[in-house]
């Protein structure tokens, strides 16, 4: 009896395992074209089947367009939120600090130097370099003025 070479098993074939498992509109169109080219001439694709597949393709394309628009909207919304907090620059803020257990520890103050956007969250950067989440701010006061050197 002849043995099968284990290197021929599909589970061992890693050459064609790249890419994603999601079908895009290009892949869908390629499948549709191959289907049309290889159909049985004695039993061609019915008009209703072809129309249904084209409707599916059209729906897929529209969903991809909506997805792109939502990504663009989300990016612009994040930028707008960052600008919304720009009025805090130069102002003194009071904010909650928490201990290692996540319980409220104390309230501290600091002057805002800049605003940053990290990991889909807006953070306030204080003059001492500390970064705090905007959700922890409990009070905003007018910035302190330093006396002019004469």
Q: Top keywords for this entry?
A:
150 residues; 34% helix; alpha+beta
Which stretches are low in confidence, meaning pLDDT under 50 for 5 or more residues running?
A: none
What share of residues are in beta strands?
A: 15-25%
Topology order in helix (H) and strand (E) letters: HHEEEEE
What is the C-alpha radius of gyration, as a whole number of Å? 30 Å
Structural class: alpha+beta
Total number of beta strands: 5
Helix content estimate: 25-40%
Categorize the overall geometry. elongated
Largest sheet: 5 strands, antiparallel
> Spatial order of the strands in the main sheet?
4-3-2-1-5
If you average the pLDDT, what whole number results? 77
> How many helices in DSSP terms?
2
First CA to last CA: what distance? Answer: 102 Å
Concise structural overview:
By secondary structure, the chain is an alpha+beta fold.
Commentary on this structure:
By secondary structure, this protein is of the alpha+beta class. A hairpin with a 5-residue loop joins strand 1 and strand 2 (104-118). Helix 1 (25-37) packs antiparallel against helix 2. The mean pLDDT is 77. It is built from two helices and five strands, in the order ααβββββ. Strands 4-3-2-1-5 form a five-stranded antiparallel β-sheet, covered by helices on one side.
């Amino acid at each position: 009896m002849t043995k099968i070479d284990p290197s021929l098993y599909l589970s061992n074939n890693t050459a064609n395992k790249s890419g994603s498992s999601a079908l895009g509109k290009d892949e869908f169109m390629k499948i549709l074209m191959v289907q049309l080219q290889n159909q049985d001439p004695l039993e061609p694709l019915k008009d209703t089947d072809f129309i249904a597949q084209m409707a599916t393709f059209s729906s897929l394309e529209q969903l991809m367009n909506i997805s792109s628009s939502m990504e663009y909207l989300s990016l612009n919304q994040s930028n707008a939120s960052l600008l919304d907090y720009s009025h805090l620059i130069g102002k003194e803020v009071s904010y909650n600090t928490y201990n290692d257990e996540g319980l409220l520890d104390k309230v501290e103050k600091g002057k805002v130097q800049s605003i940053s956007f990290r990991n889909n969250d807006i953070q306030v950067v204080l003059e001492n370099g500390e970064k705090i989440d905007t959700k922890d701010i409990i009070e905003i006061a007018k910035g302190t003025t330093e006396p002019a050197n004469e």
